[in-house]
């Protein structure tokens, strides 16, 4: 039983009602009362407040065999806008969505911030984005920024492949746009996105494999980031002692062998080329080019080693791999699973990302929406 002041209990009940509507709507007042163990009068009073705040709407009646048809309630998803950004090495991608992470619009910009301050660039992109939004009752409710590096308490601690000079980036953006700004590691946002919008598993490890390798850790539906945000920096675990140099200062880091950047470098060396694109490598692989086959097998080998370590450390329900390789080579996750030499692999499923390029962006949208609504849980399936 929840105990405390009347105001506290009323506030807690209000959040529970809104959370239940978000996750189970459309839903009737009677079903809310039954699910939450509250009286119909309490539910009606809370719902009225939520409707007055333009957070909840009535959307029609439920179908019943007899009697009065109950009115259904749902989140007023068109009541506000969410802006979510993914700041990667080469591109800054921005997504706008409604309060359910749907009706999305995505646009990509070249990241020209290298050796420059990124704040004015982000301000320009966000201002252009806001100009294209239709007016809503709540306007822009928040902004999320995914960073390819270590983030702790909304501050960037370390980025291996690009520089962010501003120490208080999120605070500066929040002051400029007068909305909350949330900043987190891209793999953390990815695992939240996969859980919220796609996979029905409470224990998920998300591997984001791009220029580096990040790991988002969800344990019993709770994001685990460690003491100061460094949990999940799996790309910087050492798998080859005295191996290749890494920007983090170590040698032999996992991402120096299994990231997309590393695999492309290996393939370019074999072809005596200075640079090779992901598309070119995948086309060569599909054409059975021997060098392409070998570097992809190297990817499978190192991923199996890494996942073997993950299984023994975290024992997740699901491992999600987000990479161009898993997107365009359909059987590669099966190859990785078959390469595992771990008795635990039969208890864990390995799948490619369900959200692919939008995982970070939708994970960021999830963070903004939950904070705006004041709810702890949001599970929305497509």
Notes on the protein architecture:
- With 382 residues, this protein is an alpha/beta fold.
- It has three domains: 70 residues, Arc Repressor Mutant, subunit A (Orthogonal Bundle); 117 residues, ATPase, nucleotide binding domain (Nucleotidyltransferase, domain 5), CATH 3.30.420; 154 residues, ATPase, nucleotide binding domain (Nucleotidyltransferase, domain 5, 2-Layer Sandwich).
- It is built from 13 helices and 15 strands.
- The strands form four sheets. A five-stranded mixed sheet has the order 6-5-4-7-10, with helices on both faces.
- Strand 11 and strand 12 form a beta hairpin.
- Helix 9 crosses helix 10 and helix 10 crosses helix 12.
- The model has no long low-confidence stretch (mean pLDDT 90).
- InterPro entries: ATPase_NBD, HTH_MarR-typ, ROK, ROK_cs, WH-like_DNA-bd_sf, WH_DNA-bd_sf.
- Keywords: Carbohydrate metabolism, Xylose metabolism.
């Amino acid at each position: 039983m929840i105990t405390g002041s009347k105001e506290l209990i009323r506030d807690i009940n209000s959040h529970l009602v809104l959370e239940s509507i978000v996750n189970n709507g459309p839903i009737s007042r009677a079903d809310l009362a039954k699910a939450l163990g509250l009286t119909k009068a309490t539910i009606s009073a809370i719902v009225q407040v939520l409707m007055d705040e333009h957070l909840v709407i009535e959307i029609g009646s439920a179908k019943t065999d007899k009697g009065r048809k109950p009115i259904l309630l749902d989140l007023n998803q068109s009541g506000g806008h969410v802006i979510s950004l993914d700041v990667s090495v080469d591109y800054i991608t921005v997504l706008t969505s409604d309060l359910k992470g749907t009706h999305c619009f995505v646009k990509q910009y070249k990241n020209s911030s290298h050796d420059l301050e990124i704040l004015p660039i982000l301000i320009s992109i966000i201002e252009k984005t806001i100009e294209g939004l239709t007016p809503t009752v709540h306007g822009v409710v928040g902004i999320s920024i995914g960073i390819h590096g270590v983030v702790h308490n909304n501050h960037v601690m370390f980025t291996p492949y690009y520089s962010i000079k501003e120490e208080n980036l999120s605070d500066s953006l929040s002051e400029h746009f007068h909305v909350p700004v949330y900043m987190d590691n891209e793999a953390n946002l990815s695992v939240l996105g996969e859980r919220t919008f796609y996979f029905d598993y409470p224990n998920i490890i998300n591997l984001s494999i791009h220029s580096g390798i990040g790991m988002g850790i969800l344990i019993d539906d709770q994001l685990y980031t460690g003491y100061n945000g460094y949990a999940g920096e799996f790309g910087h675990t050492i798998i080859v002692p005295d191996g290749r140099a890494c920007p983090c200062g170590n040698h032999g880091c996992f991402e120096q062998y299994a990231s997309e950047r590393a695999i492309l470098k290996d393939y370019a060396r074999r072809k005596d080329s200075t640079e090779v694109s992901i598309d070119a490598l995948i086309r060569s692989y599909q054409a059975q080019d021997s060098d392409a086959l070998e570097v992809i097998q190297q990817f499978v080998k190192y991923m199996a080693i890494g996942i073997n370590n993950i299984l023994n450390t975290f024992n997740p329900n699901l491992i999600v791999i987000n990479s161009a390789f898993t997107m365009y080579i359909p059987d590669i996750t099966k190859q990785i699973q078959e390469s595992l030499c771990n008795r635990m692999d039969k208890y864990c499923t390995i799948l490619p990302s369900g959200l692919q390029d939008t995982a970070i962006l939708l994970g960021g949208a999830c963070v903004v929406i939950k904070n705006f609504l004041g709810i702890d849980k949001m599970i929305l399936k497509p």
